[in-house]
Amino acid sequence: MVLDVKICGLKTPEAVTAALDGGATHIGFIFFPKSPRHLAPAQAARLREAARGRAKVVAVTVDTDDVALDEIVAQLNPDMLQLHGHETPERVRDVKARYGLPVMKAFAVREALDLAAITPYRGIADRFLFDARPPKGAELPGGNGIAFDWALLDALDADVDYMLSGGLNAGNIAEALLKTKAPGIDVSSGVERAPGEKDVRLIEEFFQAIARADEKSSSRPCLNMTERKR
């Protein structure tokens, strides 16, 4: 089994290339005007061409209405939608039916009770993403560069498919994988030199850190850098 790795909030061809060459299984484009990673659908559509046949393209939105989603889906032609707001189970179901695409629903985590919030979404959302609850007053629901207590994930049922996000970087990804056995990981601010500015070197270092973690734990299903390198 291959570890899913999503590099999110991409804005430049150089960053997309670094993510794909590193072995990303998913790349994410953010459509949220308050975010420094926000793109117009036409911009993202141009960037996504490099990913065809190499990685899944994820459109990340926050409480977005159908009009805006229609434009995003029509122009980007994503492989998956990520809903990172306060979307209800009914909204997730409607979005899946409207576009015929799998949906990943994001949840903010600070304490054990936060994980219980996924219950009504099980069987509706195709995957979950667990991110740290943003600081008080923060405008962004994710990409804030903070982590939560990974031990909380020990309480999850074994069949819950998710991506781990929040404060991941080359310095802590090995520990994160060891402690959580997460089937997927998502990084954004951890490979940036400034908010919204991806750093090719940091992306490369992130994948190198994953490879080192894989070498240290042959029993850990992880990214095969040799096979995935293009």
TrEMBL record:
Protein's name in the database: N-(5'-phosphoribosyl)anthranilate isomerase
Secreted keyword on record: no
GO molecular function, a single term: phosphoribosylanthranilate isomerase activity
Reaction catalysis annotation: N-(5-phospho-beta-D-ribosyl)anthranilate = 1-(2-carboxyphenylamino)-1-deoxy-D-ribulose 5-phosphate
Originating organism: Falsochrobactrum tianjinense
Alphabetical list of HAMAP family matching this protein: PRAI
Family of the protein in this entry: Belongs to the TrpF family.
PANTHER family from the UniProt entry: N-(5'-PHOSPHORIBOSYL)ANTHRANILATE ISOMERASE
UniProt keyword annotations, A-Z: Amino-acid biosynthesis, Aromatic amino acid biosynthesis, Isomerase, Tryptophan biosynthesis
GO term, biological process aspect, one: L-tryptophan biosynthetic process
InterPro entries found in the cross-reference section: PRAI_dom (IPR001240), TrpF_fam (IPR044643)
EC class name: isomerase
Keyword flag Isomerase: yes
EC nos: 5.3.1.24
A Pfam family that the UniProt record links to this protein: PRAI
